[in-house]
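S.,

Sequence below, as promised.
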Amino acid sequence: MNKNLVIAPEVSVALAGGKPVVALESTIIAHGMPYPANFEMAKDVEAIIREAGAVPATIAIIGGALKVGLTTAELEKFAVDGSKIIKVSTRDLPFVMAQKLDGATTVASTMRIAAMAGIPVFATGGIGGVHRGAEKSFDISADMLEFAESNVAVVTAGAKAILDLALTLETLETLGVPVVGYGTADFPAFYSRASGHPVPMRCDTPGEVAALMKAKWSMGLKGGVVVANPIPPEHEIQAAEIAPVIEKAVAEAARQNVTGKNVTPFLLARLAEVTGGRSLKANMALVRHNARVGAEIAKAYAALMKV
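The prediction came back faster than expected:
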């Protein structure tokens, strides 16, 4: 266990006993949704994981400490303070720790800290990837490289719809990362259940995903697994409807010279505004769904590792 980690007692006991634990990120709380929706979502997701028989471990940096498992008060702090809290990717971890700052962890840094703690399953909303126009901007999320580094399966509603999904999938293939369609043969596009891009492999049960995880890591193949879990049908926004809205938001971000870490929060906020809050409701629904599936996979993996 990494000595820099501060692990909550509930999480520590679960890990020591080989019980299922699901990691959760904190950027989705601080930067992905407005208050109080973000706080309600954070509490709901933890409750869903507990109800499914696993232990939630929301990850964040508080006063420079890498915390694995937050209190309700800490969840609320990140929800309320929001944009005041630094968005921390893997590269930022040493600085934020050394300066004893608070930081909201992205998919990449959450994966790294989860791997340090020995948590093999992480549920999120959507992963980062290759941004549109990356052939000029070189804007590629650190999430991509982290998937080649950390042994964590990430349950996600696909990559964020604001990205270039074809290039994101190509990059994951180059890095040797398994992309598993969970109950689907089509890579989901966050708000939409299908993107038109086929997944290279499909698993239909938590046990199948767990077996893939065990097979990969038992061979010494380093890196994560993308578990692409489509948004529930009743909460979907069809691609034909959301695509033009995304195009306009991306163009607006370019006009305003919004770059780097600020792009995703800007676009998500703009989409919520234009769709009258529908995109926010869809976002919350898919996060809850991913948490439930993540808990089932964590349970299946924990059981498999005891055999």
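The mean pLDDT is 94.

Coffee later?
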